[in-house]
Amino acid sequence: QGYQVQVFGQADGASHRANMRHASLTETSARPVGNPRLQEINQALVISTNAAGYALLRRFVQDNPTFGGLFREGLIRTIPANGATPGVDLAVQSAVHQRPWIRGHAPGPVTSIPVASLGSAVKSVDQALRCPGYSVPVLDLMRVLSASLARAGVRFIEGRLSAAQMDELSAQGGNVIIATGADQPGIVPVKGWFVRLPAADGEGDTGTGVKVHHPLPVGVMNVRRDGAELLISGGQVPPQPDHAQVQRVKDMVLAAARQHFPASFAKAQCEGRLQVAECVRPGSADGLSRIERTAARQIHAGATSAGGFTQALVLSLFVRELLRRSPGED
Fold it and tell me: Residue 202 in 3-state DSSP?
């Protein structure tokens, strides 16, 4: 079944200005709940969704060589040298990736990397693994993908629709698919930061994406070398924080960026090129993504926390399934 598609949107958030996304089996995880057994089930569901998303991305890359060159395969995971994060954080990665998640297929091997082999690319770290995953210049991908979809007849319209406008489109017989935003009811906003630095001393030059596993509230820092610049994201502010708490987490994120990329950080400060942007990701109370029909012809999809890129193709399949059903069959 074919559809006439219009895409409404406005690229005004911090995430729309950062040319970086990672995809992996542990890109996002379940949030703590009071019941340990339920927590275990939720975590399995989240990782299964990540695994399915990663498998679909691999298929997408194989089937679409035009886009495939933008997907850099393999991610390097490491921990700070200050001993704040136990090595078990990396040991978990090996166990997760060796399990046959999708039709008996394991995503691939996890290999240990000598820290010395990283050279000056990531400093002040201890232990490193190369894991299956993708590092993607997402803005470049979106330009190529949007052009391809436009040639196929998809219309891209700048701007946002109000609730009343969406209701009007639904009343006219159109299906409205809403990417869940952080400001919508029932969504738990997850606040963090994107940091942009001029790269120096070979920092970030690993040939692929890097994840540095800090304890919360810094969390896992994502890193990608983007030409002459270094892109970093990190931070997870606790719910309902005051200004002092937000500032404290921000300072911790910047301190971690300085710890691992000191030459680039110093250059940014010296040249006045340190760019820090707050970002808010839409999450949920339990860490599970949401796909639900909220009105007869309206479907909300999202609440993916840090896993939106990894889970995107999975969510789109669930949306397609809802479109095929009548509202009473959900």
Answer: coil
Residue type, 216: L
Tokens of 174: 């159109």
Residues 311/53, Cβ–Cβ less than 8 Å: yes
Task: Confirm if 219 and 39 have CB atoms less than 8 A apart.
Answer: no
Burial group, residue 246, by CB count within 10 angstroms (0-12, 13-18, 19+) = middle
Work out the burial of residue 35: count CB atoms within 10 Å of its CB; fewer than 13 is exposed, 13-18 middle, 19 or more buried.
exposed
CA atoms within 13 A on the CB side of 33: 16
C-beta of residue 301 within 8 angstroms of C-beta of residue 185: no
Rounded CA separation 184/309 (Å) = 20
User: Could you tell me whether strands 298-302 and 176-179 are parallel, antiparallel, or unpaired per DSSP bridges?
Assistant: parallel
- Which residue pairs, CB below 8 angstroms and at least 24 apart, start in 198-201? 198/228, 198/229, 198/230, 198/264, 198/267, 198/268, 198/271, 198/273, 199/225, 199/228, 199/229, 199/230, 199/264, 200/263, 200/264, 200/266, 200/267, 201/120, 201/263, 201/264
111-165 pLDDT, tens per residue?
999 999 999 999 999 889 999 999 999 999 999 999 999 999 999 999 888 989 9
DSSP 113-173: --GGGGTTSS-SEEEEEEEEEEEE-HHHHHHHHHHHHHHTT-EEEES---HHHHHHHHHTT
Supply the pLDDT for residue 33: 83
Which is nearest to 81 in space by CA: 120, 127, 113, 130?
A: 127
The answer to whether the bond into 217 is cis (omega within 30° of 0) is yes
Here the tokens at position 157 are 């319209």
Measured between its terminal Cα atoms, the distance across the chain in Å is 19
How deeply is 215 buried, as exposed, middle or buried, from its count of CB atoms within 10 A (0-12, 13-18, 19+)? middle
pTM: 0.91
How many C-beta neighbours within 10 Å does residue 195 have? 27
Report yes or no: 246 and 191 within 8 Å, Cβ to Cβ: yes
Nearest Cα residue to 224 out of 258, 250, 261, 276 = 261
